[in-house]
């Protein structure tokens, strides 16, 4: 345990810890109750911070929730750069499989979907999550194109690599084995060879 | 409006109407508030029936919810029988696209996913939904195999036709156009030609 003096000396460290505690509280509450079934006060209580700290920093529960989802996404699925489209797709798919089956993955997925019924702010949060995921992917696919490869487009990766894994997790339809994930990539690859005509 | 005498004369008709009213109340409440945010009493109130009618008929809110999801599924996505695998897959995909974009589709999808966090009863309901969907598909694919065609397996249809459509609806990622749905089927078909070796 740290002393008050240490805390005073490291305001950045404390701020980061508060943020982490608040994020974890949101993730846990989403997993336990589902989005929409808890308040800012309950998040604050569980994270051990004051309500006002949350309102000052995030403004609304929707904005906080969006921050949680986007942070999880950027932190957990780094974009690989292996030098080939095939290598990148395999590494990316393996990363996503690991993350969505991890301790917070299903809760975050359900959170993003629950946001759709949370009015305008919720839809903005959901769209921001999707935009972030798309932007990550676009960077990887652009690099392949720059090397002279013919990558699929972002929506094809969404449809045939992310969507199957997301739905299997959400529906509880079996584990995402290494072979399964590789098969998803195999199905996408033949169509990314040299373009015809 | 019907008279009391008509009601008395058609007990089956009344029973069917109660069932439809209760189902619609559940679907509406799921769309408005999300699963977990309403009670049997609120369903009864909205459907204009007594709580006891619901408890007597369905037992629990989970059992009622499962009935709603399964009924929607069996009623809205009839299994085509066009005489060819390609025709069946195109018709099936078009049916699913129409249903999940219909007035109750997104709410039912979110319901099935929300059931995952509703404990053992909820998970049973979700699994029953998935089993029903799989069983529908298996019938269609078995017919293709009996004709000498090489159909994909059920999970491939789930992964590459249902999952992309479900995720696009859940994430609000664009409309399911006729061209889009046909492209999903096209991607699955080349792999269903004569088996090698």
From TrEMBL, chains A, B:
<protein>
    <submittedName>
        <fullName>TetR/AcrR family transcriptional regulator</fullName>
    </submittedName>
</protein>
<dbReference type="Pfam" id="PF16859">
    <property type="entry name" value="TetR_C_11"/>
</dbReference>
<keyword id="KW-0238">DNA-binding</keyword>
<dbReference type="InterPro" id="IPR036271">
    <property type="entry name" value="Tet_transcr_reg_TetR-rel_C_sf"/>
</dbReference>
<dbReference type="InterPro" id="IPR011075">
    <property type="entry name" value="TetR_C"/>
</dbReference>
<feature type="domain" description="HTH tetR-type">
    <location>
        <begin position="16"/>
        <end position="76"/>
    </location>
</feature>
<dbReference type="InterPro" id="IPR009057">
    <property type="entry name" value="Homeodomain-like_sf"/>
</dbReference>
<dbReference type="InterPro" id="IPR001647">
    <property type="entry name" value="HTH_TetR"/>
</dbReference>
<keyword id="KW-0805">Transcription regulation</keyword>
<keyword id="KW-0804">Transcription</keyword>
<feature type="DNA-binding region" description="H-T-H motif">
    <location>
        <begin position="39"/>
        <end position="58"/>
    </location>
</feature>
<dbReference type="Pfam" id="PF00440">
    <property type="entry name" value="TetR_N"/>
</dbReference>
<dbReference type="InterPro" id="IPR050109">
    <property type="entry name" value="HTH-type_TetR-like_transc_reg"/>
</dbReference>
